[in-house]
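Archive entry. Fields below.
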Amino acid sequence: MFARRHHLAPYVLVIPSLLAIGILVIWPTIQIFEFSFQNYGLAQLVGTVPKQWIGLSNYSQILHDPEFWLSLRLSLIFAAVAVPLTLITGTLVGLLLNRLGRRMSTFVAGTAMLAWATPAVTASVVFVWLANPDGGVVDWTLSKLPHWLDGGAHWNGYSWTNAPLPAYTLIVLLVLWQSFPFVAVTVLAGLKTVPSELHESARVDGAGPWRIFWRVTYPLLKPIFLVLLLLSIIWDFGVFTQVYIVIGAGNLDEYNLGMYEYQKAVSPPPEYGVASALAFVLTAILLIITVGYVRSSVRQGAVK
Amino acid sequence: MTRVSKRTRKIGLNTLALLVGLVTLFPIFYMVSTAFKPATEVYSLTPHLLPAHPTLSNFRTVLNGSALSPAITYWTFLKNSLYVTLSAVVLSAGIALLASIAIARFRFRFRTTYLIMLLIVQMLPQQALVIALFIDYRSWTPLGTSNMLDSLSALILVYTAFALPVTIWMLRNFVAAVPRELEEAAALDGAGPYKIYWKILLPLVAPGLVATSVFAFIFAYNEFVFALTFLSVDTRKFTLPLYVDYFYGRSGANWGAIMAASTLFTIPPMLFFLIARRRMASGLVAGAVKG
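PREDICTED_STRUCTURE:
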């Protein structure tokens, strides 16, 4: 059609998007890399002192910074716990939705959709309220549990945000609540493409649900699971809003990598050079996982 | 394994489903319930599921702005949010439509590179890029006097750019689904490319534009990191997520009012989600039947 007459048409059509993404996404990424080799602080931002290239010293500073290693460890542990939990829960709910009657599946899918639609800011504030030491419903429920479930009065006024372990337990539950619906809906969409005869014949052969999942469902949906796994790793490793609201500024020992990097840039005195080095480390880790994501997308023909 | 009767299994599955649904619903339910509780019940040592004496006073506090000093009403923040969000939605939908036509209808050099670029760019962490964007906006003075910080235009530009990779990616499938024959027939009838574009393609990808706009809306309406960093001095320019966070940090744990603000903030994306999912599903079914 217009292709024959307008050889330049596709280039003209992609120019606006290239400009927007180039200036506002790709250029800042390059700048972060540039700043990470400079002594960029408040004086350089205001312009009283010129910026200088200082080689790798921002990087060597963060490598010798115990706070960096602590935050990196927290990010890794968080992803290692949250990702499998989200994938398993989401898959189980997807399998459940596939076997429910119409009314029940609408109900469960509806509640999942509401959790999915809840903004991260709202979800974080609500979870902080649920787990609040003064009048929160979580502490009250735990204090009423029987002793063999570790219930009891010691839960009264228990603070969930004062130490890394309880704070990240809360954030794991929060992130799980917000992200399992996407996994469930995607797995369900995948399950609808599996011919039901395959399940029938496996069942006739006497296979239980566990065997059917691993022998029939999983191999067929493997590409979907791979994409879900990579996306979950990228999202959970880079989690920010939830951490910012639940933990808040100032609790240095509870920062994950994203939060530590952000606070370096915004809390006075701002250290843009060091923050950029941290930002680049974070970006590089995510890009390595993204390569896997891109490769699996290309293999599935998404780039055609 | 003992054989379980079909009936027992069905009851078991439904009970499990009910439990999953209720647990998932609980945080939202409790947010709304707290929003309607008077202070005495919010801070009661034995929490109750439902307010015993429901009140609108929390909503009133939020709407008339008396929770903040100086008082700023909820409508100010809603107006900011809607202005930023709708501008970004319109801009990104327009730009994405052009790009998706290029991808779906043309073979061109660097097409694959462009597609892979989109996939990579959407994974870049926003809390990393915000450092450079903050510095850029601070030094950029398009009107000569003030810089771009504390301006809603700064947010519109960033939201447009960050929504683009996914909106282009979504929209190109809708464009690709429109049969080329329609356009070719119109071209044979003597219609020029722009007429074909406006009269044939645009109406047919309209459902796709709705779906991608919903995505862009939810992204821009919920966005937090950029708003947090760019808007800091002028509270009157805050968007809703920033307002909820600010209020949560300032209100001295006025949980009833915080939950009322959160509820009001959360209603639009929830409605959008529920409506759009039904729309998209029915659109898909309609297409399949017409085949």
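CURATOR_NOTE: The domain at 72-290 of chain B is CATH 1.10.3720.10 (MetI-like fold).
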